Amino acid sequence: MAEQNILSADQSVLEQILSDINEYEENQERLEYISASIKDITKETDSTSKAMQDEISARIKESTDAICAGYDKAIDCDKDKIKQVQADRDKAKQQGMKERIQTETASLRQENKELASQIERAFIQENISKITNNTFFLALFLSRKLKDVLVYILFMLIMCGGIPAVLYVLPFVPVWVPVVYTAVIALLFLIISRCVYINPHYNTIIAARDTKYRIRNNKKIIKKIRHSIKKDDNDAIYGLESFDHKINDLHDSIEKTENEKQGALKEFEETVKPDILEEIQGRYVDKLELMNRELTKKKDEYTKLDDLVKQQRIYISSNYEAYIGKEFVDKEKLAELCNIMKSGACTTIAQAIAEYKNQH
Q1: b/e per residue, 18-49, with b = 16+ CB within 10 A?
Q2: Burial category of 189 from C-beta neighbours within 10 Å (exposed 0-12, middle 13-18, buried 19 and up)
Q3: Cα–Cα distance measured from residue 22 to residue 26, given in angstroms and rounded to the nearest whole number
Q4: How would DSSP label each residue in 328-354?
Q5: If we measure between CA atoms, which residue out of 88, 71, 75, 94 comes closest to residue 246?
């Protein structure tokens, strides 16, 4: 047929063309159906494979979690014990430091106690007012150390500077009030200072002041000793070896449990896991093999049919469309051309096409 001019052919050739077109379109529909089947089978295969992998993962996780649970519980228990022993160790160390501080500062604290008793006895024996033994009173009227001088300056700034300034800015306070107040304070301070210096017990008060300085210095030394002991990292003197041994033993126990856990996991990987894989895969293997065989079969069928459809398309294009035009390579129009020829009005395909165009 490819070697003749089909335009001069008769009705039988036209019917053959129509048959080839029908076959081509049927093969196209079949090709689409096979393509959809391949997608469905592929999707089902992937879903089944995923279900198998999910089940394997879940079973392996469940098994490994069960193995780890017991070991992890033992490890957590030992860690809690370490925390408790460490807390007991810290408590024992604090107690040891406290006792060490007490021991190393005992002489200074005893000296301070005796010095304070000396001052108290002297004031009782000479019947001196207790107010003159007050640290603040001594800082104001018998200042010698820098700290006392600073207390004195601050007190005077407040009493003779700050309070009068406040009184001066208050609208309801007369202007003369701050002046009178400052004069009274200054006068009182001079009177008290004079009384202190002419006091018959002046030497005793001065001695009490100097003794208080000694007490203050001793307290500074005690504070330094306390700070030095707390900063000392050497805790061997506190007898903490038993706690350290317990902590080391617990760390060894944790390491041993960790090693046993890793051994159990390794044994699971080598012995139990293959059995799990075999059992689960065995339940899926037949179904997957069946689907893979069907998928292979469909793909082969698709490839062959696709080659056939391509060949048919080329044949139709080069042998039919080239002569009668793409417009008439259509089932409905070919059927109308057949009817025209059956009516006896035309004997060739070319005449049938011309008649068709006249009718439309």
Answers
A1: bebbeebeebeeebeebeebbeebeeebeeee
A2: middle
A3: 6
A4: G-SHHHHHHHHHHHHTTS-SSHHHHHH
A5: 88
CB atoms within 10 A of CB 231: 7
Q: Which of 43, 30, 42, 39 is nearest to 306 (CA)?
A: 30
Q: Report the alpha-carbon distance of residue 15 to residue 336 in Å, rounded.
A: 11
Query: Cα angle at 285 between 59 and 293, to 5 degrees?
Result: 145
User: Among residues 272, 315, 209, which one has the least CA distance to residue 59?
Assistant: 272
In the chain the first and final C-alpha atoms are separated, in Å, by: 29
| Rounded mean pLDDT for each run of 10 residues along the chain, 360 residues in total | 69 88 92 94 94 94 92 95 95 91 92 90 80 71 74 81 80 80 79 70 80 90 92 85 94 95 93 92 92 94 94 89 84 87 84 83
Distance CA 124, CA 129 (A): 9
What is the C-alpha to C-alpha distance for residues 288 and 238, in angstroms, rounded to an integer? 72
Report the Cα 108 to chain-centroid distance in Å.
54
Q: CB of 235 within 8 A of CB of 74?
A: no
Kindly report the backbone phi and psi dihedral angles of residue 170, in degrees, each rounded to the nearest multiple of 5, phi listed first. Answer: -70, 125
